Design the sequence.
C-alpha cells in the first residue's frame, strides 16, 4: 500500500501535464485534489503504523526489488523522520492544490509541483545512494521547470559554474561514501563509521573521513540553493505567484535541506567538530538573514529571508544536539508559514500580484478575516502562549538552559537577538499592510474583497490547527522519553541524554517574552507613531531624524 504514496503524485503530474494546454475545468482540479487527499490519508496511515511499531527502533522497509540469488535488494526506508516529512509534504501539497481552484494557478505550475513532490518523496525514502542521487536531480529538474528557464534571457555564467561545482561536490561525496563503506545501502554505510578510523589532519585538528564527506554533501546543497537568492536570474522563483513561491520553499528545499543534515547524522554523531561547524554555520545564516529582514519590504524576499533564518535556527539546534527540539520547531514554524503565505498570496493576487508592502495599507477594512488569520500565524511563530509555536520555543529554551558549553552566554545572546528581529519584522509587515496609510492602487483597493467563503473556511481550519496542534504534538517531542526516541531514530544512540528540570528554567523564557514584546513595541513606534511626526517641519528638516525616517520607517518622502 505504501507504494501508492508515490503513484498518486506521479499520476497527478501526468494528468496535469497532458491537459495543460486544454481548457481548465473544475473536474481536473477536483480529481487532482482527490489524489492528494488519498496520499495524505496514506501518509497518516504510515506515520501511525511506525509510531505503533513494537520495536526499539521505529523503522521498517518496503521492498521494491529483491533477488535472493544475486543478494540484491532495493527497499524504501520508512522511519519516524521520514513519515513525518511525508505527511508535511503531502499536507502542504494538498493545500496548494485546493487554493489553485480559487487563485487560478496554472496547470503548468501545478504539474511541475506534483513532479517536485514525487521527487521529494523518493528522496526522503531513499535506502541507497543511487535512489538518493536520482531523486535529488529530479528535484532540481522540477525546480527549473517551475521557473520556466526556457523563457529567460539573462547571462548567468557565474551561476552555471556554481551549479557545476555543486554537482561535482555532490557526486564526489556520494562516491567517497561508497568508497569508504563499500556499499550503496544506508544500513551498511551507517555501520561503517564504527569500524573506520581514517583521520585527516587539517589545521592541526583531526577530522574523520565521514565528517569531511558529510560536510561536502551538505555544502553541495547550500551551493545549489544560492542561485535562488539572485534576483532576475533565470533560476529566480519570483516569477511564481506568492502562494506557489512560498509553498515551493516549504515543500522542496526546507524539508530536503533538513533531510540532508539529519539523515547522515549517524556518520558524524561522535564528531563534535562537525556539530560545531553546523552551530557556527547556522549562527552565520541566521544573523545574515535577520539583518536583511530589517530593511526588506518585498513580500517574497521577506518570506525567503524568514524561511532561511529559521533554517539557520534548525542548524543551531542540530549543532547543539537538540534533535527533538529542532524537528518540533520545524513543524510548528512550517504551519505558521503556510497560513501566512496563503493569506498574503490572496492579498497579492487581489492587488494584481503586488509584492511591495509599502504599496499596500489599511487593508483591515477590506480584509478583516485575513488580518485575523495572519495575526494568528504571526503570534504562533513568535511563540506567544498558547499557540503551537509556544510549545516548541519553550522546549528550545529549556533545553538550551541545560547545555554545558563554553559559549553558553553567547548562544543565549544570539537567541535573544533573533527573537527581537523576528518579532519586529513580523509586526512591521502587519502594521504596514493592514494598519498603515493606504498606498494601494485605488481601483484595485475598491474592488478587493475578503476572499471567498471557501478560502476563509480553509484558513479557519488551518488557524484551529495552529492553535491546537502544538499541544497535541508536545507529547511526541517533549520529555526524556521523546528525546531518546528521536535520538534513536536519527543517530541510533540513546546515551546522549539531557535530564530535564523545566521548572527551574522559567527566567530565561520570561526574558525572551520581554524582548519579543519590545520588538513589537518598536515596530509599532516606527511604522505607526514616528511617521506621523515627519509632517512636523522642524523635525522633517533635521538630518538625523530624516535619516531615521528613511532607514527604519515606511515614511513616504514624495507625498
Sequence:
Amino acid at each position: 500500500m505504501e507504494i501508492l504514496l508515490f503513484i498518486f503524485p506521479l499520476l497527478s503530474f501526468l494528468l496535469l501535464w497532458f491537459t495543460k494546454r486544454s481548457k481548465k475545468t473544475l473536474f481536473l482540479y477536483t480529481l487532482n485534489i482527490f489524489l492528494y487527499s488519498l496520499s495524505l490519508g496514506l501518509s497518516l496511515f504510515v506515520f501511525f503504523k511506525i509510531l505503533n511499531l513494537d520495536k526499539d527502533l521505529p523503522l521498517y522497509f518496503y521492498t521494491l526489488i529483491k533477488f535472493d540469488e544475486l543478494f540484491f535488494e532495493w527497499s524504501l526506508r520508512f522511519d519516524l523522520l521520514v513519515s513525518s516529512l511525508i505527511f508535511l509534504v503531502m499536507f502542504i501539497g494538498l493545500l496548494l492544490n485546493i487554493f489553485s481552484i480559487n487563485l487560478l494557478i496554472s496547470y503548468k505550475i501545478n504539474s511541475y509541483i506534483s513532479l517536485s513532490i514525487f521527487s521529494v518523496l523518493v528522496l526522503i525514502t531513499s535506502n541507497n545512494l543511487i535512489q538518493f542521487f536520482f531523486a535529488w536531480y529530479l528535484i532540481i529538474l522540477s525546480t527549473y521547470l517551475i521557473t520556466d528557464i526556457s523563457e529567460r534571457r539573462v547571462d548567468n555564467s557565474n551561476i552555471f559554474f556554481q551549479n557545476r561545482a555543486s554537482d561535482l561536490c555532490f557526486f564526489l561525496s556520494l562516491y567517497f561514501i561508497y568508497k569508504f563503506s563499500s556499499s550503496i545501502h544506508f544500513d551498511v554505510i551507517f555501520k561503517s563509521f564504527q569500524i573506520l578510523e581514517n583521520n585527516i589532519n587539517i589545521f592541526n585538528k583531526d577530522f574523520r573521513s565521514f565528517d569531511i564527506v558529510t560536510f561536502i554533501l551538505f555544502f553541495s546543497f547550500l551551493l545549489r540553493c544560492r542561485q535562488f537568492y539572485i534576483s532576475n536570474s533565470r533560476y529566480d522563483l519570483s516569477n511564481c505567484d506568492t502562494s506557489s513561491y512560498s509553498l515551493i520553499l516549504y515543500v522542496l528545499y526546507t524539508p530536503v535541506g533538513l533531510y540532508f543534515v539529519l539523515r547522515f547524522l549517524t556518520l558524524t554523531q561522535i564528531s563534535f567538530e562537525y556539530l560545531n561547524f553546523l552551530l557556527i554555520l547556522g549562527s552565520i545564516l541566521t544573523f545574515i538573514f535577520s539583518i536583511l529582514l530589517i530593511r526588506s519590504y518585498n513580500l517574497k524576499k521577506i518570506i525567503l529571508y524568514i524561511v532561511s533564518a529559521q533554517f539557520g535556527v534548525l542548524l543551531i539546534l542540530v549543532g547543539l544536539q537538540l534533535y527533538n527540539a529542532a524537528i518540533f520547531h520545524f513543524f510548528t514554524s512550517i504551519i505558521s508559514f503556510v497560513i501566512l503565505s496563503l493569506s498574503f498570496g490572496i492579498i497579492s493576487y487581489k492587488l494584481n500580484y503586488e509584492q511591495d508592502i509599502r504599496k499596500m495599507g489599511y487593508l483591515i477594512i477590506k480584509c478583516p478575516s485575513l488580518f485575523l488569520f495572519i495575526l494568528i500565524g504571526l503570534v504562533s511563530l513568535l511563540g506567544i502562549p498558547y499557540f503551537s509555536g509556544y510549545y516548541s520555543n519553550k522546549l528550545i529554551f529549556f533545553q538550551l538552559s541545560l547545555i554545558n558549553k563554553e559559549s553558553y552566554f553567547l548562544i543565549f545572546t544570539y537567541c535573544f537577538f533573533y527573537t527581537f528581529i523576528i518579532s519586529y519584522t513580523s509586526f512591521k509587515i502587519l502594521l504596514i499592510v493592514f494598519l498603515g496609510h493606504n498606498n494601494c492602487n485605488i481601483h484595485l483597493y475598491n474592488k478587493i474583497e475578503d476572499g471567498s467563503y471557501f478560502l476563509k473556511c480553509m484558513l479557519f481550519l488551518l488557524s484551529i490547527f495552529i492553535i491546537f496542534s502544538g499541544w497535541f504534538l508536545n507529547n511526541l517531542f517533549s520529555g526524556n522519553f521523546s528525546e531518546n526516541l528521536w535520538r534513536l531514530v536519527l543517530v541510533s544512540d540513546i546515551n546522549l541524554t539531557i535530564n530535564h528540570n523545566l521548572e527551574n528554567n522559567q527566567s530565561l523564557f520570561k526574558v525572551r517574552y520581554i524582548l519579543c514584546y519590545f520588538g513589537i513595541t518598536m515596530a509599532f513606534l516606527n511604522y505607526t507613531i514616528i511617521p506621523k511626526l515627519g509632517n512636523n517641519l522642524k523635525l522633517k528638516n533635521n538630518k538625523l531624524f530624516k535619516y531615521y525616517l528613511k532607514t527604519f520607517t515606511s515614511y513616504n518622502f514624495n507625498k
